[in-house]
Amino acid sequence: MTAKRRVASGSTSLKKLAEHLGLNPATVSVVLNDVPGRTIPQATRDRIKAAAKELNYRPSLLARSLRNRRTLSIGILVPELGDGYHTQVMSGIGDHLMDAGYFYFTAHHRHRRNLVEEYSQMLLGRGAEALIAIDTLLEHSFPVPVVAVAGHRPIDGVTNVVLDHRFAAELALTHLHSLGHRRIAFMRGQPFSSDSDERWRSIVMVARELGIAIRSELTVQLDRDVSSPELGYPVIQHLLANRQQFTAVVAFNDMSAIGAIRALQDSGMKVPADVSVIGFDDINAAAFNNPRLTTIRQPLANMGRMAAQCVLNRIHGSERFRKQIVVEPELVVRESTRAIQP
Amino acid sequence: MSSHKFWSLLLDNCMFRLETRCQEQSMAREEGDRYMTEKRRASGSTSLKKLAEHLGLNPATVSVVLNEVPGRAIPQATRDRVKAAAKKLNYQPNLLARSLRNRHTLSIGILVPDLSEGYHNQLVGGIGDHLTEAGYFYFTALHRRRKHLVEEYGRKLLSRGTEALIAIDTPLEHSFPVPVVAVGGHRSIAGITNLILDHRFAAELVLMHLHGLGHRRIAFVRGQSFSEDASERWRCIVQVAGEVGIAIRPELTVQLDRDVSSPELGYPVIQHLLSNREHFTAVVAFNDMSAIGAIRALQDSGMQVPADVSVTGFDDITAAAFSNPRLTTIRQPLANMGRMAAQYVLNRIHGKEKFRKQIIVEPELVVRESTQAIKQGNQPGKTSQLPHQ
């Protein structure tokens, strides 16, 4: 019989395995699942394990997960998998979950409210033990642990992983202020991006304290849902076409900063000689841009890892619910900012 | 083995598998139902049975309406009533349990080395967008190019019921019991469809372009030996270079070996060429990331791109168009390749398309600012004009 069975590339069921061994299926199950506190002789245990190996017995994880209520999977909601922010956070999450033996489902909702709702329900329907939402607007609580990376609403059971935006604004504006910049153009993030409001609020507050005016004619609003430098190009082009004077640009993120620099260069201006530009995030491309980008670093991959660790701890009950986890930013000074020319 | 014996063995084997499968299915079905009841109790939602009781209808009728089973004569008024009650009583079909009944998990497994920017995330992004639109989710398994993880994760994805696999830049060693597409895969394995770029044409595009601009002393950056595309791409470059009359000089050929996907990739290898005082007028980089790093290395040693050295990339990632200078490159339609891979596995799952050994995608030359015709003084045979520091 074993000879025939071995021909099969498919696996054996628990029942067949028990028959083959002449044992009760329950005994076989207890041994293979390492159920504690059962007195089964070591010799029997060894015999069962050897037979399971020989007959290529593979437990069906899907069926087993229904018994244990454990699917070892996490659902991830993300707008899209663009360059920069999303991918770097995802990659931190992915590495950490895989190391812990978890897999994750991903759904791309493209910032559409109805899809966020629909996909989160579907992820739960597939047995996700927890959800991680990246740059995703959640509107209610869920029956499983949830971590929202860059989430700002207080919702029951949802832990927000947030950057200290107030400190980030201080770092960026004090840096430019100390270099003598006063006429500064500001880019506001897209209304659908989770961090936009909070970041803007902090900038307005810190600017006032430092005595930097926020001029409406120098404030541009991003609105396109792209995550390439294309984001920052047209808005700076627009300022230049209006012949606005400014000595520095505070971009919403690195991608838009890179686009802004390109727009400035394309109209014959030099960065940083004519205009300083500061980014936000410190994505990989920032250090290799020409000029290299001065930016505010968010520890993106690390934020992903923290989010993953937090949901795992909550699943395993080793951590209490926290409303938020605050992450500290860092100023990285490179080539795109310098003191204004007298 | 006699042919009779072979067939009887095969038949026996099939019967055994069928039997096991039926058994597993019925076990799973029972467990699915049990799970659903428990879960409902926890979340306060209603079961199909309760819903039917509430409506005073047969559960089968309710199910037919809610699952939109075609071809049943149920009055519209009843349909509306069922739907309204389902909404009011918060009836949610349990997809996990349902998938066990149908054997449809509506999920696809993706094997990818890592989720780095550029190549991998643009492909996964394209696949994900398409799958999500089609009502499928995907599991991503990052194997970091470790052979045992590729094997282990492939198996685990299947045991989670994924209906197909898409492998990106991943060396697969055997066939699988589900449809598989290998993006950038070059091995011929039963049941695995390789989605590949026409590398020969890509090599022609890039070398003809540089040749046409007068470049003859060209430095080549070879891809990492673990990259599935690297050896095929190199083979084509060597072949086309021979035909066009461009020499491939070992002293101008550098090999990438680090497993990073940022411009850091191309920086040190070009620095190395420069510190050896090698003279070249163009660089054919393995991909855009390494091209951006190469440009930065050239600029940092006081050279201008493209005035002193032309640089070509490969892939056309989003950063290519915004690099300074904007990158001349060979476009692989990455997001579109992701979509094609997704659509193809969906078609195979639904039996709408037959197995194909490979799907070939055509590259495109995108000329931007990083290449230009060589200056007179830079022509072959003349002495180097490189600024040495």
CATH class of the largest domain in chain B: Alpha Beta
Q: From the helix content, strand content and strand pairing of chain A, which structural class follows?
A: alpha/beta
Order of helices and strands of chain A: HHHHHEHEHEEEHEHEHEHEEHEE
Average predicted local confidence, pLDDT of chain A: 88
What secondary-structure arrangement, pairings included, does this model have?
The complex is a heterodimer of chains A (342) and B (389).
Chain A lengths: L1 H6 L6 H8 L3 H8 L9 H13 L6 H8 L4 E6 L6 H15 L3 E6 L4 H13 L5 E4 L11 E4 L8 E6 L1 H14 L5 E5 L7 H15 L8 E3 L11 H9 L6 E3 L3 H13 L9 E6 L12 E4 L2 H16 L8 E4 L2 E3 L10
Parallel strand pairs in A: 1-2, 1-3, 3-4, 4-5, 5-11, 6-7, 6-8, 8-9, 9-10
Antiparallel strand pairs in A: 10-12
Chain B lengths: L2 H41 L4 H8 L3 H8 L9 H13 L6 H8 L4 E6 L6 H15 L3 E6 L4 H13 L5 E4 L11 E4 L8 E6 L1 H14 L5 E5 L5 H17 L8 E3 L11 H9 L6 E3 L3 H13 L9 E3 L16 E3 L2 H16 L8 E4 L2 E3 L23
Helix pairs in contact in B: 1-5, 2-3, 2-4, 6-12, 8-9, 10-11
Can I get a quick summary?
By secondary structure, chain A is an alpha/beta fold. Chain A has twelve helices and twelve strands. Chain A has three domains: 58 residues, 434 Repressor (Amino-terminal Domain) (Orthogonal Bundle); 118 residues, 3-Layer(aba) Sandwich (Rossmann fold), CATH 3.40.50.2300; 134 residues, Rossmann fold.
Structural description of this entry:
With 342 residues, chain A is α/β, with parallel strands linked by helices. Helix content of chain A is 40%, strand content 16%. Chain A has three domains: 2-59, 434 Repressor (Amino-terminal Domain) (Orthogonal Bundle), CATH 1.10.260; 71-163 and 301-325, 3-Layer(aba) Sandwich (Rossmann fold); 165-298, 3-Layer(aba) Sandwich (Rossmann fold). In chain A, helix 2 (14-21) crosses helix 3 (25-32), helix 6 (85-99) packs across helix 12 and helix 10 packs across helix 11. The radius of gyration of chain A is 27 Å and the shape is elongated. Chain B has 389 residues and is of the alpha/beta class. Chain B contains twelve helices and twelve strands. In chain B, the strands form three sheets. In chain B, strands 2-1-3-4-5-11 form a six-stranded parallel β-sheet, sandwiched between helices. In chain B, strand 1, helix 6 (119-133) and strand 2 form a beta-alpha-beta unit. In chain B, helix 2 crosses helix 3 and helix 10 crosses helix 11. Mean pLDDT of chain B is 83; it is low at 14-26 and 379-389. At the A-B interface, helix 1, helix 5, helix 6, strand 2 and helix 7 of A face helix 1, helix 5, helix 6, strand 2 and helix 7 of B.
